[in-house]
Design brief:
The complex is a heterodimer of chains A (about 625) and B (about 180). With about 625 residues, chain A is α+β, with helices and mostly antiparallel strands. Chain A has 13 helices and 26 strands. In chain A, about 45% of the residues are buried. Chain B is built from seven helices and no strands. Chain B has helices at about 15, 25-40, 50-70, 75-85, 100-115, 120-150, 155-180. Classes of the chains: A alpha+beta (about 625), B mainly alpha (about 180).
Chain lengths: ~625, ~180
C-alpha cells in the first residue's frame, strides 16, 4: 500500500505540472506536428494556418528554406531542393545504386559511409536534411504551445530497420529535440484510432504513404495495443505511383530516359497532379511543354488502375503474409484502418476492401492520424497522465542474426518478436589457441550474409588460448523499446567482455554527430533568424494586401501619377524582398513603403472622415 | 499492485504469470496476465525514471516477453515443460530414424514443390498445409495426453521424438507458406 503523503504546514504538494510534449510524423512527402492541448490531440498549424509541412528542404544562397516555399524551387533548382529524403535515411552510399538513378541529386562520390548530397550550402547527409525539417516543426510547436518541449515522439515506418531508426534518432538529436521514443507509424495510427473508437478487437492498419508501405495487425484490449505482426516494404510508396505514371507519359510523349532533371521533376509533378485528379474524376488531361517537347494527352482512371495494379497487388501479398505471421485467420480481422496519402487512390481502397472483405475505415484524416497518435503517446511519456492505462507492445520487423562459418546467418531474434527483448546464444572457437572472435551483426530474413543488411562488426579480444571448441562465448542481443539493438559478447570461463551499441556501419559516428551538434548551436542563432524572417514575411504580406486593397479603392482618386509610380515601385521592392530570406531587407522595404505612403495614408484618413461625415448634420457628429 | 522490484526472476514462467503448470493452457488467461505484468514493467512506464530503473525495466520486460512467447506456442511450451522436469531438448541431435516418417516428409516436400504448376495453386497450397497441420494435431494430441500423466511415468524418448517431428512439420509448413506467398508476385 502506498503511504499517504504529508506536507509541511503551509506547504502544499507541488501542483502537477503539465509538461509540453509533441508527436512528430516525419514523412516522406509531408510532415506534421501534433500535441495534446486541454485533453484534445490535434495537429498544429503554421502562421498561415497550414498543418501539413511538405518534407522539402531548399538550400538557397541566403539560408535553408523548408516546406511550401522550398517546394516552389523544385523545378527551377532541382539540385538544391531535396525532397523524399526519408527514402535515403539509414542507407549506405552503396545502397544508392538501387535507388540512385531515380534521384535527381548530385551525390558526393563516395563508395562507403553515409551518402552526402552536394548543395550550394555544402554537402549534406540525409540525416541533416531531416533535422532541418524537424527544427521547423520544433519551432512551430514551441511557438504554438508557448514554451520549450520537454520531449517528443517521432514516428517511423514499422518496417524501418535498425539503421533507418538510428538515422532518425540522430536527426532528432541534431535538431535539438529530446526524443522520448521512436514509435511505429501503424501503432501510432492505432492509438489515435483506438482511443477514438474505444473498442477492443483485432485490427489491421494498412499504411501506404509517400515512400513506404506498412501493414500491421494489432490486438486492442483495455488500453493495451499489442502488435501481433508487422510487414511491408520500406521502398514502396505513392512516389512509385507517380513514377509509373511518369513512365507512361514518357512512353506516350516520346521522352527519352535521359531527360533533363527539371524535365523529370516536371513529369513527377504532373504525374502526381493527375493521380490526385483521378481520385475524383474518371479522366484527366495532361500537357507537357518543356525542353522542345510539346505533348498533350488524356489518362483515364481505368488505364491508371491498370498501371497501378501491380504495385497495389504487392501490398495485398504483404497483407496475406503478415496475417499469417500474426497467427490469425483473415476473417478474425474486425476492422481495417487506412493511413497515409496513397490510400486516397480509389484502386487501393477497392482492392483492400476486396481482400479483407469489409469496408476499410477512412474516417480519420489519413494524413493526420499518425501525428495525432504520436502526440497522445508523447503526452503519456511526459508524465502528464499518471493514471493512464495505455501501453504499446511493439515488435521488431526484421530478424536479427549473426554471421557463422561459411557466410551463413544464424538468426538470434526472429522477426515479429515483441520488444524489448534479450536473447543469448553460445558460440565457440574453431582453432586451437584462438584469442579473438569476430562478431558480425546482421538483419534480414535470408540465410546468406550477403543477402542481409550488415549492421555492425566488432571483435571480442583477449580470450585465453584454449583448445578449439572449448571456449564458451555468449553473445547477447538486446533490443530496447525503440527497436534499437545493442550487442555484447562474453567469454564465460575467463569473463572477457566486449559490448557495442549497434551503430550501423553507414550511420553517423559519435564524432560526426558532435560536429553537427556544435554547428547546430550556431543554428540556435539561425533559428532565431528564421523566426524573425517569418515574422517579417507575415508583416510584409499584411502591408502588401492592405495597400493593394486601398489602391484599388481610391488610389486613382487620391494620387497623382508621379506619386502612384513611386508607391508602385516601393510596393514592388517589398514584394521582391519578401520572397527572399533576408529579414532585415524585408523590414527595410516595409519601412520604405510606409515612408512613401505617409502622404497617401493621411489623405485617405481625411477622405474617409469626410465620407463618413458627408450626409450627416454637424450636430449628429459626436467628436 | 506489483512493483518492479518485487518481481522474482527465479520463478519459472508459469509461476511468473501465476497460472497452473501444464501443457494445456488457457491462452486468453495467459495473455491477460502477460498484459497486466507489462503494464507494470514496460520501459514506457519509466520514461522519466532513473537510468538504473530504466535498465531494470528493460530487462524485466524482456524476460516477460520471452516467457510469454515460450508459453504461447505449443512447441516451445512442450520443450520448456520437459526442461522444467530436467529433460533437455538438444537442437543439435534432432535426427530421426523413423523410415516411414522420412518417406512422408519427402512426399510432402514434393507436393510443395509442385504447387506452382497445378491448375489451382492456391487450392493445392491450402491442401498441403492442411495435410501438414493434420499430422501436427496428431502429435500435439499425443504430447497433451503424455503431459497429463506427467514425468516420471512418461515415455520421455517418445515425447522428444514427437517434438523433433513437430519441428520438421513446422519447417515444412513454413516452406509451403513461402511457396504460397510467392504465387502473388
Amino acid at each position: 500500500m502506498a503511504l499517504l503523503q504529508i506536507s509541511e504546514p503551509g506547504q502544499s504538494a507541488a501542483p502537477h505540472q503539465h509538461k509540453l510534449a509533441a508527436g512528430i510524423d516525419l514523412g516522406t512527402t509531408n510532415s506534421l506536428v501534433a500535441s495534446v492541448r486541454s485533453g484534445v490531440a490535434e495537429t498544429l498549424a503554421d502562421s498561415e494556418g497550414k498543418h501539413i509541412l511538405p518534407s522539402v528542404v531548399h538550400y538557397a544562397s541566403e539560408g535553408v528554406i523548408v516546406g511550401e516555399i522550398g517546394l516552389k524551387h523544385a523545378v527551377k533548382d532541382p539540385l538544391n531542393t531535396l525532397s523524399s529524403i526519408k527514402r535515403l535515411m539509414g542507407r549506405s552510399a552503396n545502397d544508392l545504386n538501387s535507388l540512385g538513378s531515380q534521384l535527381p541529386y548530385e551525390f558526393v562520390d563516395e563508395s562507403a559511409g553515409v551518402p552526402r548530397i552536394k548543395t550550394r550550402r555544402g554537402d549534406v547527409s540525409p540525416i541533416e536534411v531531416s533535422a532541418e525539417i524537424l527544427k521547423v516543426l520544433k519551432l512551430r510547436a514551441e511557438e504554438t504551445l508557448g514554451g520549450e518541449l520537454s520531449g517528443v515522439v517521432i514516428t517511423v515506418p514499422a518496417y524501418f530497420d535498425d539503421a533507418q531508426r538510428q538515422a532518425t534518432k540522430d536527426a532528432a538529436r541534431i535538431a535539438g529535440l529530446n526524443l522520448f521514443r521512436l514509435l511505429n507509424e501503424p501503432t501510432a495510427a492505432a492509438v489515435a484510432y483506438g482511443l477514438d473508437k474505444r473498442n477492443d478487437g483485432t485490427i489491421a492498419i494498412y499504411d501506404f504513404g509517400g515512400g513506404t508501405f506498412d501493414i500491421s495487425i494489432l490486438r486492442l484490449n483495455k488500453g493495451v495495443f499489442e502488435v501481433l505482426a508487422t510487414g511491408g516494404d520500406s521502398a514502396l510508396g505513392g512516389d512509385d505511383f507517380d513514377r509509373v505514371i511518369a513512365q507512361w507519359i514518357m512512353g506516350e510523349a516520346g521522352i527519352k530516359e535521359d531527360a533533363s532533371r527539371s524535365m523529370m521533376r516536371r513529369l513527377m509533378e504532373e504525374s502526381r497532379r493527375v493521380k490526385e485528379a483521378l481520385t475524383e474524376n474518371a479522366q484527366s488531361e495532361i500537357s507537357i511543354e518543356q525542353d522542345e517537347i510539346k505533348w498533350a494527352g488524356v489518362l483515364t482512371r481505368d488505364l491508371l488502375n491498370e498501371l497501378l495494379a501491380p504495385l497495389v497487388r504487392k501490398t495485398i501479398a504483404a497483407c496475406r503474409r503478415t496475417i499469417r505471421d500474426a497467427g490469425i485467420e483473415k476473417r478474425e480481422v474486425d476492422e481495417v484502418v487506412m493511413v497515409g496519402g496513397s490510400t486516397r487512390v480509389p484502386l487501393v481502397r477497392t482492392l483492400v476492401g476486396e481482400f479483407f472483405e469489409c469496408d476499410p475505415l477512412v474516417d480519420i484524416d489519413p494524413d493526420k492520424v499518425v501525428a495525432i497518435g504520436a502526440s497522445i503517446q508523447a503526452d503519456v511519456l511526459a508524465g502528464n497522465k499518471p493514471d493512464n492505462e495505455m501501453l504499446l507492445l511493439d515488435v521488431i520487423p526484421l530478424s536479427l542474426g549473426i554471421e557463422t562459418m561459411g557466410g551463413l546467418v544464424e538468426h538470434i531474434i526472429p522477426r515479429n518478436t515483441t520488444i524489448p527483448v534479450a536473447r543469448a546464444q553460445e558460440f565457440t572457437t574453431f582453432k586451437d589457441g584462438q584469442t579473438a572472435l569476430a562478431v558480425h551483426v546482421l538483419q534480414g530474413e535470408r540465410d546468406l550474409t550477403e543477402d542481409c543488411r550488415s549492421l555492425a562488426r566488432f571483435e571480442l579480444r583477449g580470450i585465453p588460448p584454449m583448445v578449439a571448441g572449448s571456449a564458451r562465448i555468449r553473445v547477447t542481443y538486446q533490443v530496447d523499446a525503440d527497436g534499437l539493438l545493442s550487442v555484447s559478447a562474453r567469454e564465460q570461463t575467463s569473463g572477457v567482455e566486449s559490448h557495442i551499441e549497434v551503430k550501423p556501419s553507414y550511420g553517423l559516428s559519435e564524432n560526426e554527430i558532435e560536429t553537427m551538434l556544435r554547428s547546430s548551436f550556431d543554428h540556435a542563432a539561425q533559428d532565431m533568424e528564421m523566426r524573425k524572417l517569418r515574422e517579417q514575411q507575415v508583416e510584409a504580406d499584411r502591408e502588401i494586401e492592405a495597400l493593394k486593397a486601398a489602391l484599388n479603392d481610391d488610389g486613382d482618386e487620391l494620387l497623382s501619377a508621379e506619386e502612384r509610380t513611386q508607391i508602385d515601385k516601393a510596393l514592388d521592392r517589398l514584394v521582391q524582398t519578401r520572397s527572399g530570406v533576408d529579414a532585415d531587407a524585408i523590414k527595410d522595404a516595409i519601412e520604405n513603403l510606409e515612408a512613401v505612403c505617409v502622404g497617401y495614408v493621411s489623405r485617405r484618413m481625411n477622405s474617409n472622415i469626410k465620407r463618413a461625415l458627408s450626409g450627416q448634420k454637424v450636430d449628429d457628429v459626436d467628436i | 499492485m506489483t512493483e518492479l522490484s518485487d518481481m522474482d526472476i527465479s520463478q519459472n514462467y508459469f509461476e511468473l504469470f501465476d497460472i497452473p503448470v501444464g501443457f494445456e493452457l488457457d491462452l486468453s488467461m495467459l495473455r491477460r496476465k502477460y498484459q497486466e505484468l507489462q503494464k507494470v514493467t514496460h520501459p514506457d512506464r519509466y520514461a522519466s525514471a532513473s537510468e538504473q530503473e530504466r535498465l531494470l525495466s528493460v530487462q524485466k520486460a524482456a524476460l516477460i516477453n520471452d516467457a510469454f512467447t515460450t508459453l504461447k506456442h505449443p512447441l516451445s511450451r512442450a520443450k520448456y515443460l520437459l526442461q522444467l522436469h530436467g529433460v533437455n531438448y538438444d537442437d543439435e541431435k534432432n535426427t530421426i530414424a523413423d523410415g516411414a516418417f522420412l518417406m512422408q516428409q519427402m512426399e510432402l516436400r514434393e507436393a510443395i514443390a509442385s504447387i506452382p504448376g497445378t491448375k489451382d495453386p492456391y487450392g493445392a497450397a491450402a491442401q498441403v498445409i492442411e495435410e501438414i497441420e493434420k499430422h501436427m494435431r496428431g502429435l500435439y494430441g499425443f504430447l497433451q495426453r503424455e503431459f497429463e500423466v506427467l514425468i516420471p511415468g512418461a515415455p520421455v524418448e517418445e515425447m522428444l521424438d514427437a517434438i523433433r517431428k513437430l519441428q520438421f512439420f513446422e519447417k515444412l509448413r513454413h516452406e509451403a507458406e513461402l511457396v504460397e506467398s510467392k504465387l502473388d508476385d
